[in-house]
Amino acid sequence: MTNAMRALLLLAILALSACSFHLRGSNPKDVAFAFKSLYLKAPGETAFVADLRRMLKSSKVELAASADKADLVLDIVSEQSIKQILSLSGSGRVQEYQLLYRISLRAYDIKQNDWLSAEEISLSRILPYDDTQVLAKEQEEALLYKDMRSDAVAQTMRRLSRAKPQP
Distance (Å, rounded) from C-alpha 107 to C-alpha 84? Predict the structure, then answer.
């Protein structure tokens, strides 16, 4: 490849990034919802709930202070983080863990009409483990859980964008 070709390729890449090119539907702020306000009913203020609140606010969804003032109630029924041993070495040491993250939720209106029936978002990741790098593997585990949490928030937002009253 000549220098002129490289410069032309670099210029084309810069032009695409300068025009703010992005895939259609990839920006969660551009999503239209069938409701105006939402009450988020959760058992506690977890990191998932805080991330979901932040995403809802950035999507211009009004968060109501009580269920009777909202068009829709999103009930986070449960949230679980599970760590299971996936494989052991011949000497009985852990080689891999499986990390599971589950969110159960449902959405309904004031009249108890389901918009989203009881659904579960289930995500899993595999964590290779080494006894000699305990601190690094703890940090990697935390990053994997954070990634699964942000994926669960995105899936929840997509499900809310297609939520409609069911007959």
Answer: 30
pTM over the 0.85 mark = no
Q: What is the DSSP string of 41-93?
A: E-SS--HHHHHHHHHHHHTTPEEPSSGGG-SEEEEEEEEEEEEEEEEE-TTS-
Q: Dihedral (C-alpha) 88, 92, 93, 99: value to the nearest 10 degrees?
A: 40
Alpha-carbon distance of 134 to 14, in angstroms, equals: 41
Percentage of the chain modeled with pLDDT above 90 = 53
Nearest to 160 by CA among 45, 43, 44, 70: 70
Structural domains in the chain? 25-161 (3.30.160.150)
**Rounded CA separation 10/108 (Å):** 50
Tokens of 1: 């490849």
> Rounded distance, CA 98 to CA 87, Å?
9
